[in-house]
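The data are set out underneath:

___
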Amino acid sequence: MNNDLAPTYKRLFSPYWVLWYSTSNNYSVVESEFKMILDVYFDSNSFDEFSSKLAMIDSKSDASVISRNIENYLQACNLISKPTKKNSPKFKASFRNICRQYKIKNQKIEIFFDSKLVEKTIHPSIAHLKVKNNTKAEVIFDIYLEEDFLCLFINETLITSIPKRDYHLLQGKFFMELISLANNKAETDWLGTFHGSTIADGRNSILIIGKSGKGKSTLCALLAANGYELVADDVSPMLSRDLNIYRNHSALSIKQGAFDRLKNIIDGFENLPTTYFNKSKGLIKHVPFEKPKKDHYPCKAIVMVNYKNESETTLDSISIKKVLETLIPDSWLSPNQAYAKQFIDWLEQSELYQLTYSDTKSVINRLSVLFDELRN
C-alpha cells in the first residue's frame, strides 16, 4: 500500500500510540486497535492482500470502507498547513508612531508600534522591562497593522505577517525572537515553544498547561507568591541541546476572574495597571515576579490544570492523548526530524498529571510533594 504516507516515528504510550508525520510535522494519537490495522495496511502490497489479512482479524470487517478511511486519515495527517500570509510586505518607517525601549539581560531593544491597539499585543507583557529612550538600541522591532495583516520586522527585515484575527501567532513569534535574542540562540536551536507556563523549585521545573479559564495562570501566581520560581508564562521554550525550559521574560497575565483571589496574596496587586484587549479576554493585569535563580531548568512533569470551585485537590495520572490535545494546538514544535524524536523521548520520560483544585493551601502542598518526588 502507500508507504510514502507512513509515519516517521511511532511510540507506544499505553493504551495509545503517538505517530509523527515528517511531511506535515503532525502528531497523531491513535488507539492500539487502529495502530494494528494501520500496520496491516502498510505491510500489505495490494488491496487484496490487505483484505485477506484483515479478514483474519475480523471476518465481518469491510476492507473497502476501512481502506478508504485509512487513506483519508493518512492524507489528513500528511497535509501541509499553509498559513495565510501577506505577500512579502515592504518595511515602511511611516508606521513608527509609538516608540518603546526595553532592556533584556544586557541588551537594549527598541520596539515601534503603529497604534495603541497594536501596542497592547506586546507592551503590557514586558512593561516591567521598559527603560528610558535615551540610547541607541542594538535590535529594533517594528510591529504594525497593514491591510488587516500584523507585520513583524527586525532591523527592517520582515519576520512574519499574520492576519490580525490570529494576533496570538504574532505574539508567539515575537516572544520566540525575544527569547532567542536573550539567550543568543537561533530559532533552529529550539525544540519548540510550548503553550503553557513553567514553574521551578530551584532544581526542576513543571510545565503547567490547560485550556483558557481553567486556572493555569492563577495557579502559577499562587506558586510564585509562595516561593516557587516563575520561569515562563504562556510561552515556554525548550532548547534541543539540553531539553531544558528557558526563561521567558514576560510578566504573568492574570484575568479579571482571579483579581479578588490574588489581591491579598501578591503585594501591590491592586496598583498594577489593567489592560482591556478584547471582549473574550476582558481585563488583564500583568504581574512581574522576581527572576528565577537560573535561566533554565530540566522539565520532568506536565500538569494539566482544572480549577473547579469547592473541589478537593487531586493529582491524577493522565493519558498522553489528553496532554497532547491540550498542549499541541497553540504550541510551536520544530519540524526537524531529530528534534521530533527528542520531543517524543521527553514525553515518554515525563510524568503526566491532571490537577483539580480550588483550595490555595492544599494545592501548594500537593505540588510541593510532587516537586520532592521529581528530585528522586
